[in-house]
Amino acid sequence: MTSTRKALRAGLALTGLALLAACSGPGAENTTTNTAAAPAPSGDLRVAVVTHGTAGDAFWNVVKNGATAAGEQLGVTVDYHSDGDPGRQSTLIDNAVSQQVGGIVVSMANPDAVKTSIENAVKAGIPVITINSGSDKSASFGALAHVGQEESVAGEQAGRKLKDAGKTKLLCVIHEAGNVGLNQRCDGARTGFGGTVTNLQVDINNPTDVESRIKGALQTDPSVDAVLTLNPQVAGSSVSAVKGASSKAAVATFDLNADVTAAIKAGDVLFAVDQQQYEQGYLPIVMLKLYRDNANTVGGGKPVLTGPGFVDKSNVDKVAEYAERGTR
Q1: pLDDT bracket for residue 3 (50, 70, 90)
Q2: How far apart are the first and last CA of the chain?
Q3: N or C, fewer C-beta in 10 Å, the chain?
Q4: How far is CA 8 from CA 11, 15, 18, 19, 61, in A?
Q5: Is 199 helix (H, G, I), strand (E, B) or coil?
Q6: Taking CA 127 as the corner, what is the angle to CA 126 and CA 132, rounded to the nearest 5 degrees?
Q7: pTM of this prediction?
Q8: Phi and psi for 39 in degrees, rounded to 5?
Q9: 279-310 b/e (C-beta count within 10 Å ≥ 16 → b)
């Protein structure tokens, strides 16, 4: 028994020596040398987030919440600004450049209007990430990446879901003039729907007029059996308009808020196309931090997609919890 134990101990000792030799050989020396940590960049990172959202817009409040949360978690200072006027949005970008921020996040509802400002930021050595809209122009303007959803693809899927629900005549409600992403959504819906699709232009800044215009369109053409809105606030106006017009049209929408999740539960909204806008605020802050600290890029030249996903009665209860807290 004693000799057996001695042999076992000797074997274990030899095994340990072999492992030590393997771990301390030339390959291990190179690994230790090559993985020595490089000094981290000094100083705080300050990022300007400049969107085209209007004041109080529920969608953009969630984007802001995402950017703010990422900044708090990563120790990044986040300055959030927004203006629905393309010219004033460009001025906000120019101001961020003059302040020599460490990064800029910008939405491009009207890419041509903000092109020069974004290109000037890139020339000044400020990394830019675009979000939400204008993905096809992002790389050509010099941005590191784009975070959002492909609007035409999302619109096509929404149109197909309405077609599958048996709808034949669709009203697509555009709430911001000149927003290329909204037109892409309706164009995509037209492709996926296959039936008759009519666009209706409204002004999101005038909720009373939004409801009146949708109601008037439904009364003018009672054969319209589906309304697709591109904003959660407009969805609420559409629900009221459908009821006011005594129409049986189904309402579907892009994007979420607590009112939309409640309407889905009540059966007043068929589904919502969810582009998870919280991620559009959160992810660019992470990406700019990684770029500054480690020269990382994300996406490989392709958009980083946050949608589309769909919220309906099958999953609304869970998502509603997050919409209530302002993260969906």
Answers
A1: very low
A2: 68
A3: N
A4: 5, 11, 15, 16, 67
A5: strand
A6: 125
A7: 0.80
A8: -60, 135
A9: bbbbbbbbbbbebbeeeeebbeeebbbbbbbb
Domains of the chain: 46-149+276-297 (3.40.50.2300), 151-274 (3.40.50.2300)
Give Rg (Cα) of the chain. Answer: 26
pLDDT at 178: 86
Dihedral sign from CA coordinates of 217, 223, 227, 233: positive
Q: Over 70: is that where the pLDDT of 5 sits?
A: no
Please, where are the H alpha helices in the chain? 2-23, 26-34, 58-74, 86-98, 111-123, 135-138, 151-164, 180-193, 207-220, 232-244, 258-266, 277-294, 316-324
Q: How confident is the model at residue 27 (pLDDT cuts 50, 70, 90)?
A: very low
139 is written with which tokens? 């790389």
**Count of CB atoms situated within 10 Å of the CB of 316:** 20
DSSP secondary structure letters along 264-296: HHHTS---EEE--HHHHHHHHHHHHHHHHHH--
Q: How confident is the model at residue 100 (pLDDT cuts 50, 70, 90)?
A: very high
Provide the percentage of residues in the chain whose pLDDT is more than 90. Answer: 82
In angstroms, rounded to a whole number, what is the distance separating the alpha carbons of residues 175 and 172? 10
Token pair 């309706």 is at which residue? 186
Rounded-to-integer distance, Cα 221 and Cα 229, Å: 17
Biggest alpha carbon–alpha carbon distance for the chain: 101
Phi/psi at 289 (nearest 5 deg)?
Answer: -65, -45
Contact 228, 189 (CB under 8 A): yes
Q: Quick one: pLDDT band at residue 42, thresholds 50, 70, 90?
A: low
For 326, counting Cβ atoms within 10 Å of its Cβ (0-12 exposed, 13-18 middle, 19+ buried), the class is middle
Q: Do residues 292 and 74 make contact, with C-beta atoms less than 8 angstroms apart?
A: no
Q: From CA 210, how far away is CA 267, in angstroms rounded?
A: 21
